[in-house]
Amino acid sequence: MEDNFQSAYQEEEDRLNHALIEIDSTLERLRSTPVYTGHEYTEQVLEDSREQKRKDLAKLRQEPYFGRLDFQGNDEEERKALYIGKIGVDREQVSDRPLVIDWRAPVASLFYSFTGGTEAASYEAPEGLIEGLVYLKRNVVIRKQILERVADTYNRDSDAPAVSDEFLVYRLGENKDNRLRDIVSTIQEEQDKIIRAAKNKALIIQGVAGSGKTTVALHRLAFLLYQYKDQVSAEKMIIFAPNRMFLDYISDVLPELGVGNIAQSTFPDWAAGVLGVTLPEQDASETMNRWFETAGAMPVITEETPGRFKGSTVLMSVIESSIKLLETSAVPEGDFSPWDGAVLRRSMILRWHNEEYAPYPPAKRKERVMARIHRWIEMELKKSPSAAALKDRKKKGAAREKAYSAKWPKYEPLAIYKQIFRAAKTPEDWPAEAPEEIPQAVLKETVKELKKGILREEDLPPLLYIHYLLNGNEGTERFDHIVIDEAQDFSPFQIAVLDLYVKGHSFTILGDLSQGIHAYKGVHEWNEMQSLFAGEYTAYHALTRSYRSTMEIIEFANGILSAGVGSALLAVPVFRSGNPVRLISYEDAQPEPATGGSQRLSAVRSALSSLSGREYRTVAVLTRSLREAAELYAELAGQFEDIHLIDGSITEYRGGLSVLPVYLSKGLEFDAVILADADSAHYGGAAWDAKLMYVGCTRALHELWLLHDGGLPHYVQLLGDETVSGWPVPEGN
């Protein structure tokens, strides 16, 4: 066995050295080629290609590839060793195989889909289905041109058992820094199916915590750009993430995959930009205060909760009816007369509006009609009998044209939105009362805020829809593909509006209902989104394997879901064992003589001191509220270095030691997590509380500690067999 490993290692080291020589040779040749700076288009294209190759090779020479697949097609005479990397590179000399095959290439899919066995394997290529035999599947780790690890996950010629999870467990066991990383070397079969799915569908992905759904979505963007390079472009793709800090956290993945220029935004930032409005700075913090800052007193969520109602398709129908009502009575009553003796009949204006310009949306139709009226005025002016009459008619005509235009509806989204809610004067033919579909509580609150000039995040989808119905998508380019992360926090209305701004229903929509802590505005079931699309334009995938946390942490978190939520969306852990989850009472911590403080503070300090002896790059202390996080941060800042308070205002995740409320931790991951105040006083017995605690627990990769005052929630009390109480015994005792 040892001899086989040494032989494989030596073989791969020799191959790496030869590959590096070839890469360096090609790179040197390209760098010695003079850069073309002229204006000949063909030469400019060739120079762009050479420059891209220079960048690719410079990047590739550090880590040329990560996998090897020996495959023999049925119509081939011999098997070929195919090396797979992040960037594909051809050989200098003509060959039957590239130096490195791009991980997105059709044949590379075998590296991810083949899991062993002696049966024939196949993959879809442009020329059709290719079948053959896989002889070897090998993972390699190369860092800075040094071969660090070789692991065979399948060898047809060996009697040794396959170790398909060994390499995965090795990579998962590595400590994390302050950035999400690519997973091209460890993409699993179920993830690969999503990455390579067809473009023109709304993929809805339910992924348990740690299933890699965010990373899968980013890799899917890279694949779409490779597979459909003549149909899509990076500049016409966008990623919607929950907050700006999360965008910073994921910002390195696409560049690592050689992809740039993809827009990344939050939905409020993008929507406000399209509408040209400004949301109050305090909007997000006020919403969080309302729903998260008072433990055990979360308001009841119903379909009449403002965020839920304004995110529903019911409001879409109300808006559509209101816009149609505006259209039918848009043309002012009476004929138009720019001056005495000149008359443009209303019947003619109606014909222009209702027939000739009918294909245009209302705002554009008004522009066309008014432009037509202006041209008619100019024609009539030519009939003026004298210069004096011309001057007089021009003055009167301009004034009456302006007055006539003012009689049309005011085609501004905010103005119409206010009219729908009866927060502004409505057109004469509108009913006096607001549409009966709007709940009274929502109506009252919205009118109050609109009259104060306050807009909320929940108002953006309806405003966008009004904008679209009035103007179409003019001025806002349609996207080739949209990724929506943490989609359980999006409303059906948001998805429906975004569908108007994307080609071919091309979405990757991903989230986890078990982490639906923003249920006051998000979906409660995925069919709320799936029902927006015809069956042939949507597909659902479930990612149930969790690659983030140890088995102990996942089983503990699953127990919270089962007992506290009654959820069946449980994670299946990868076999990676670690330390047990620790439940530690504050009573077990004595005030430290040097620093003093409460038992709670002493417990947190002791936990951090204990964890500091491990080689962890990222540690988080999660509190129930932002107020408690700020207080704890102030008490810890003088004792621990590289400590940061995450309060929702920062845009960069810096790693190290972070203190933050649990509701701001969603989407992030840490080597170790200390969940402070994990007691019933902070987490009640409702399903929402259990989901909140579940989110906190599933942020941990290697270690999870829960500190409490002794009164544990019922869904934690039931998990005693899966935890260890008290402090860890110091090493050497």
Overall geometric form = globular
Beta-strand proportion: 15-25%
Structural class determined from secondary elements: alpha/beta
Radius of gyration: 31 Å
Largest sheet: 7 strands, parallel
Q: What's the end-to-end separation, in Å?
A: 38 Å
The total of helices stands at 25
Secondary structure layout:
Blueprint: H1 2-32, H2 41-60, E1 67-73, E2 80-85, E3 101-102, H3 109-113, E4 121-125, E5 128-143, E6 146-155, H4 166-172, H5 189-195, E7 202-207, H6 213-227, E8 237-240, H7 244-249, H8 253-256, E9 263-265, H9 267-275, H10 283-292, H11 306-310, H12 313-328, E10 336-339, E11 342-344, H13 346-356, H14 362-381, H15 387-406, H16 413-420, H17 440-451, H18 460-471, E12 481-484, H19 492-499, E13 507-511, H20 527-530, E14 538-543, E15 545-546, H21 551-564, E16 572-573, E17 581-585, H22 599-611, E18 618-623, H23 626-636, E19 643-645, E20 656-661, E21 670-675, H24 687-697, E22 700-708, H25 714-717, E23 723-725
Parallel strand pairs: 2-3, 7-13, 7-14, 8-9, 8-12, 12-13, 15-16, 17-22, 17-23, 18-20, 18-21, 19-20, 21-22
Antiparallel strand pairs: 1-2, 1-5, 4-5, 5-6, 10-11
Helix pairs in contact: 1-2, 5-6, 9-18, 12-18, 14-15, 16-18, 21-24
Walk me through the structure:
It is globular and about 105 Å long. The chain has about 725 residues and is of the alpha/beta class. α1 packs antiparallel against α2 and α5 packs across α6. The longest helix is centred in the N-terminal third of the chain and has 31 residues. The mean pLDDT is about 90. The chain contains 25 helices and 23 strands. The strands form 5 sheets. It has a 7-stranded parallel beta sheet with strand order 19-20-18-21-22-17-23, sandwiched between helices.
